[in-house]
Amino acid sequence: MNIRLHKKLGLVFLMSLFLFVFVPSAMAFEGRGDDNVTIEAGEVIEDDLYVGTNKFVLNGTIKGDLIVGASEVLINGTVEGDLWAGAQSVEINGAIMGDAHIGATAVELGEGAEIEEDLVAFGYSLHNKSGSLVGKELVFGGYQALLEGDVAGDVWAGANSLQVNGRIGGNVTTEVGGGETAPPFNPYQFTPNAPTMPIVPSGLTIDVAAEIGGDLTYRSSQTSDIPAGTVGGNVDFTREVVNTDGSAQSSTGQTVWHHARRFITLALIGALLIWQVPTFVTRLSNKLQEKPMPSLGWGAVVYFGVPIIIIALFVAASLLALLFRGLQFGNLSSLIIFVLLAVVFAFMVAFVLALLYLTKIIVGYFVGRLILQRVSPTLAETPYWSLLLGLLLVVVVSAIPWLGGLVNWIIAIIGVGTLWLLWRGDKTPVEKIA
After folding, report:
1. CB 182: neighbour CB atoms within 10 A?
2. Which long-range contacts (CB under 8 A, 24 or more apart) does 349-356 make?
3. First and final C-alpha spacing in the chain
4. Fewest beta carbons within 10 Å, which of 51, 156, 167, 206?
5. What is the pLDDT of residues 282-302, one digit of tens each?
6. Are 307 and 105 in contact (CB under 8 A)?
7. Helices 252-276 and 359-375: crossing angle, nearest 10°?
8. How far apart are CA 368 and CA 394, in angstroms?
9. Alpha-carbon gap, residue 331 to 109, rounded angstroms
10. What is the pLDDT of residue 432?
11. Which residues are CB-contacts of 43 (< 8 A; sequence separation ≥ 6)?
């Protein structure tokens, strides 16, 4: 993603997250929390509405803002203020008279849905169906977006897949991926009760029936076929060649240095772990050797289950905040939300770091030790040699086009599965392991 678009999406996301969580305590509001919450047709909420629940359905009218954390959100009625939603799936068939800020696995605007101002969405999939309307700008950051409805203003999108079939009144600025950055399948197809999502081809697709009133500016690893007459302004394309892990490359020397730097980083972190907690690393390797298939299976469960856990934590934060507000504990509810948000953030950071570094160290050390035990048992007795050999193989294989992405993905799943099995089977603190 180019720097300007990256900063725009990132800034909007942080602002949205901050405002969604830290709701002003002085505002009038009506709070609801139950397993399922439904605002019936004809029911009118005069104030802002804060909801933490499993499934939320709006058939009536909310005069103020709607702030909701749920597994499933369905809006058939009207929100006269802004919408702030965090959920597994958000479906809008009614009207949002202000801005809509949404973080969800799947976001869908049905036929007749209307957002009078901006739509800011982050998640795996965005689909605005034909007949829907976004009155001003649309900002999306995620994996795929299918735009079949109308957007009166500009579109800003950072995604692997973007398809435009509808009418865009302003400019379209996007950075898209390609086949080399796409996972082998939709990871959410294995998630229980996963929302239905369209299939969008990798890269940028402009339908012959699409209308873009302004300029089309896109950055991708491949050119797109832009039908004549679909873009009213100029078309500006920037080619970006990518490595197997999705990072940009501009020369062979930079590519080699990128992978060398990756190897050095992993080697330094791995060596530090072996130095400080040597038996922790060996226990992980032993666990992987003892239970390779359970590591793969549990790894898939953890890998695909983390987004659901994060949503559940946000829902829990919303429910607790509502409880303490209802008990009139004042700013204590905001403090609880802050603490829970810090926990969620720490969890997300730890998980990402584990995927990026620890999983590769686990698998690399295991592979390196396995080879040295057969080739040179003497060298295998020194864990640093096993680590360096294994990481070298991991980095080299990961650099192979097409195959590298799949290998990285499998390593991530096996690695987190091994961590899970060790944690579940051995609750000994890391300090004692050393």
Report:
1. 18
2. 351/306, 351/416, 354/415, 354/416, 354/419, 355/412, 355/415, 355/416
3. 42
4. 167
5. 888 888 888 888 888 888 888
6. yes
7. 80
8. 10
9. 36
10. 36
11. 59, 60, 61
